[in-house]
Amino acid sequence: MDFQINDIANPKLYGDPARLQSFYAWLRAEHPVARAEPEGFRPFWVVSRHAAIREIERQPEIFNAGPRNTLMPIMVEQANRQYFGFEAGVYSLVVIDGERHQELRGLTQNYFLPKNIRKLEALIGDLARQYVSRLDDLGGACDFAADLAFWYPLRVAMTILGIDETDEARMLHLTHELFGSSDPDIVRPGMTQAEHLVAVNQDYVAFFDEVTKDRQANPRDDVATLIANGRPGDRDMTPAERMGYYIIIATAGHDTTAASIAGGLKALMDMPGEIERLRADRNLVKSFANEAIRWTAPVKHFFRNVVEDYELGGVMLRRGDHVMLSYGAATRDEAAFEQADMFRLDRGLNNHLAFGYGPHMCLGQFLAKLEIEAFFHALLDKVETIEPHGPAIYTEAAFVSGIKSLPVKYRLR
Ligand code: HEM
Fold it and tell me: How many domains is the chain partitioned into structurally?
């Protein structure tokens, strides 16, 4: 196929998963450390091999997470700087480095450890069954992504954060607007992408300012209370730190998990006999869930900022350069995974990079896995057969993307 490095910034590439995977394979094989200079963006390096990304992530003192953290057009970075004083727009854990990052991460870290997440098992199992039971009313055919997959992880995230069910649709809409700002279907009518993002951020600020007031007056047992009242490192959080914390907890966990659920189901439906195999051996649900995350890699990249000259794979990265870590490409690296381009629900060791690696590795990884496992247990209990009923449609976005529509038909047990 006819590729150019700059295609990495083209949202359309992400709407076509077969082409995306061919592009990633081409990058890994022929341009493992590639210079991208797409029009409208500041230049950057793209790193696509598993081992090279880990080499970078092991050295956070050389590769900062902030200030440039994801791929954004220059116009959006400028608008963010103007309105928020910071080019990433949202000042969240993923753009903060060093000691302050550790302090802030420490505020909620315990909450997300496996021993605490296991306490949520019954609650999450109930929610999984509740959402899967929507199939009872959908008459044998539905859009599995829009009718089920998006809603369940959202409810889990909102329950943990402590947001009422009545505000859920608004939160889902804002997440889609935040991550899908390059998708013409999603951008607010009559606005440029930059204006759209600024408006979305302002809506978040208005919403979470109310949450802070409420939790300071009436603390509860939820993550919003930790954020509203926390003093990490014995210091008050700045308004930007607090807002960034709410937004990352509210957004990081549901579109990503939803994309893994929908993509995992699609992979199962595409492999005859595998649903029955999974149903017959429930021990495989764990490895299946992790394979679904590797396979879909909903977070396609994060950036790192070079703070001192460094040679990577024979290429000199200079202080001040920016590096895109292509988690999407690394999860299919043949050098790291046997049969990397096959979905294997019994894959053993699966040290994929879909959750990142190093100090910023996903805080919600145990929760995400538990959610996906619970969902598929519930689904396997419920459906006798489930199969595609039209083409899957993928979000056209270079940062977080995955299936946005998955028509299926099914028969219940
Ligand atoms: C960080 C992916 C689910 C919360 C990350 C990062 C990735 C990622 C790649 C690393 C950022 C970096 O390299 O700078 C995913 C995927 C998920 C998922 C693929 C689902 C399949 C969740 C869930 C939560 C969550 C359920 C829970 C709220 C976070 C937070 C961070 C993070 C707070 C920032 C950690 C830090 O910077 O210290 N995630 N995530 N994620 N994730 Fe997830």
Answer: 1
Cα separation, 172 vs 188, in Å, equals 15
Tell me, using a 6 A CB cutoff, whether residue 230 lines ligand 1: no
Tokens 């709407």 sit on residue: 15
Domain span at residue 311 reads 5-412
Q: Is the CB of 178 under 6 A from ligand 1?
A: no
Distance 11 CA to ligand 1 centre (A): 21
Q: Cα(43)–Cα(94) distance, rounded to whole angstroms?
A: 21
Q: Is the CB of 257 under 6 A from ligand 1?
A: yes
Shortest-distance atom of ligand 1 to CA 372: 21
Q: What is the pLDDT of residue 84?
A: 77
Per-residue pLDDT reduced to its tens digit, 211-262: 999 999 999 989 999 999 999 999 999 999 999 999 999 888 888 999 999 9
pLDDT at 16 > cutoff 80: yes
As separate numbers, helices (DSSP H) first and strands (DSSP E) second, the chain gives 18, 12
Pocket flag, ligand 1, residue 252 (CB < 6 Å)? yes
Q: How high is the ipTM of this complex?
A: 0.99
Pocket test for ligand 1, best of 300, 362, 370 (most atoms within 8 A of CB): 362
What CATH number is given to the structural domain containing 97?
A: 1.10.630.10
Place 186 in a pLDDT band, splitting at 50, 70 and 90: confident
Three-state secondary structure call for residue 15: coil
